[in-house]
Model the fold of this input.
Amino acid sequence: MISLIIKNLWHRRVANIWLFIELVVVTVVTWVIIDPVVVRVSDRCLPLGYDEDRLFYISLNEQPSGSPLYNENADNNESREKDIDRIVMKLNSIDGIESVGVTAIPLNMIAVIESYKCGDEKTDSLNKSILHDAFEIKDKIFSTIGAEAADGCPSVEELENMSFGYNDIILTESADRFYFPDHRGVNKKFLKKRVGPDHLIECKVVGVLKDIRLVNTDRNTAYAFQNYHSNFRVPSLLIVRLKDGINTEEYISDNRELLQAAATTVNYYVSDIVSVAENNRTLEERKGITANRNLRVSLAALFLLNLILGIVGTVWLQTRRRISEIGIHRSFGAFRFNIRSMIVGENVLLALCAVAVGLLIYLQYALKEGLYDSQLGAGQYITNHSWVTEFGVHFAIVSAIVAAIIIACVVAGTWIPAHRAGKIAPVDALRDE
Done:
């Protein structure tokens, strides 16, 4: 069968040349259209590393002086500190709530860049920035969001109960791998840039967490967390974790008034309650990522529809023109299945050759210009590697998707008319011969 398919393709090479060229061009154009869509969708599907579906924010604002609840005697740091503890205690007593954490900014706003330098300043040349955040470790942010400690490292509970020094930090696994190739950063030290190129201070790694993707619009999972030291916490957000099995949106809708009452004191009132998932979606929309992704998906869908119709139509017509040939095969006793398999095999082999040529052409362009990466602007700080950043893997994955799409179109455009033509009686097929 294979030798017959190759022989038929050779004899029909002139008739197939335009179809071959069309498939080569379609392969290159499909690559250009599909690559950004695949990368964007892949980035969106990456795990966050924390329990987004069980969390919501309660935004706090300080009571204005004109509020009926405002108390001038309570307008001091000590009173505010007690109010925060009181709010956390009230919320923890509400049915359905598992834990409450206190922070100053939403998880997805953590994007302060600081420079770190591993090892000895005099001998080690490694110096690259990393995303960094500082907050009160004792406010149980890690356990509330559902973060997990890396294997062989102090647990989240141990970290939150630990006595932190000013320069003690916690790394994620991606940051740990970057600075310490042996993946054993705990208790090791490196240098942190403060003010000026020569001003470095020594930091100690006290723990390593499994990767967390705090900024949902970013592929990055390399973070450094430092304990925030202050005489007074200035929170603007409470992160609330619900018990397993509770729908966050429904819980907020059903208990909004109860939550507002629990979080209202002489110093604070609730300005907003929103799920972490909704907050992440809002960030995507504000950055234009949602609109960009939807636009690319819509254009890709429209292109693929035209691609399918174009390829299927072209292959369909070519197959219909071979009805007399099919009739001759049938008159000599060929089975319908064998005839269909032969015609489909010819077009699939032709398509594979065209796809190979198209991929080689695009490879030359990609080697010079590079492949699509939604995180190209993040080069100033450490980003974890993924298949998107590995040229060979990236090219292979998208090429496989492109090839699958084109082959599927060719098979669909060949099998249906070949199947119908195989049912025609030999006398009818050869009537005009």
